[in-house]
Amino acid sequence: MRKSHPVRRAVLAGAATVSGIVLLLSMKPASDPGGAQAAGGQIPPAAAGQAPQGGVNGAVTGDAAQTQYGAVQVRLTMSNGKITQAEAVQAPKGGRSDQITASSVPRLNQAAVAAQSADIDAVSGATYTSAGYKKSLQSALDKAKASSGASQGSGNAQTVTGDVAQTQYGPVQVRITVAGGKITKAEAVQAPKGGRSDQITSSSVPRLNQAAVAAGNAQFDAVSGATYTSAGYKKSLQSALDKVPAGGGSSQGAGSGAGSAQARTVTGSVAQTQYGPVQVRITVAGGKITKAEAVQAPKGGRSDQITSNSVPRLNQAAVAAGNAQIDAVSGATYTSAGYKQSLQSALDQAGG
User: Fold this and answer.
1) What DSSP string runs through 129-192?
2) Membrane-spanning residues where (predicted)?
3) 81-119: per-residue pLDDT in tens?
4) Torsion over CA of 133, 135, 137 and 141, rounded to 10 degrees?
5) How far is it, in rounded angstroms, from Cα 252 to Cα 312?
6) d(C-alpha 74, C-alpha 89), whole Å
7) Cα–Cα distance between 118 and 112 in angstroms, integer?
8) How many CA atoms lie within 13 A of 208 on its CB side?
9) Of 139, 235, 295, 324, which residue is least crowded by CB atoms under 10 Å?
């Protein structure tokens, strides 16, 4: 039998090797995660602003976002960490705003559910409403994320931003980090600035931050010479503490007394009415409202009389009903509507 020439054997071996490599490459899985992302595939769920995955259920109301044409506030309904419904509980109204709101809000609601995040496009012709919607939506998602973190273990650090507190010299807003039921860090993300305010802010805010961490609540002394900044700081700080989910925040800051770990104080978002803002704070224990109070209500002129007459009755009704489904007080229609709206916001935050 004729033997193969050595050169021929080398050529055949080389061809076989090349064929094997081609075959292996053709068997490479089509679903290459890196390739999919590089080709413009979806970003992983850990992206900022995305709806938190986990056991978040129920309604979550974002903070009211003020726009040039009025307030926008978004409420989400969550199921297993996903947005199942989005709605605007506040939106600009009156005149041309009615038409813009009616056209844009349903589309923004749909976009929020579809995107599962606040990364949605603005509706053409509704720039301000869209911006406010997205801001409030992000606030609701942040609250849901904080709630999800608390359910996974109270030892997890979580960051909560308080509501903006308006002062005579400018807004103050506080952000805190809470771990193991204690404030581990406090910072002012907004503070008065410009002119004399720059010096006061640079001197007082670091001391306020230290006081918040040391006290573990909002019950500390104002900084001398910075009365307004201190008052705004403490107000925003208390708002942040109210937002800390049960089991994750400071029991003192949340308003629960010693030996009453289940009690929790929550402050609802500000509801704007024709005669002034209304804001409700509730104490919840054992799944029931044990106390309700209005920390803001219309005042001045005729409003003083209406407020003094209606608010105590609304407080009693909230405790008796255990929810926001209470009757308006006769002669105080606007105050009652604002009270119920802020009360519902507080209940949403409390998970009720």
Assistant:
1) HHHHHHHHHHHHHHHHHHHHHHHT-TTS-EEEEPPPEEETTEEEEEEEEEETTEEEEEEEEE--
2) none
3) 889 999 998 999 999 999 999 999 999 999 999 999 999
4) 180
5) 26
6) 6
7) 6
8) 32
9) 295
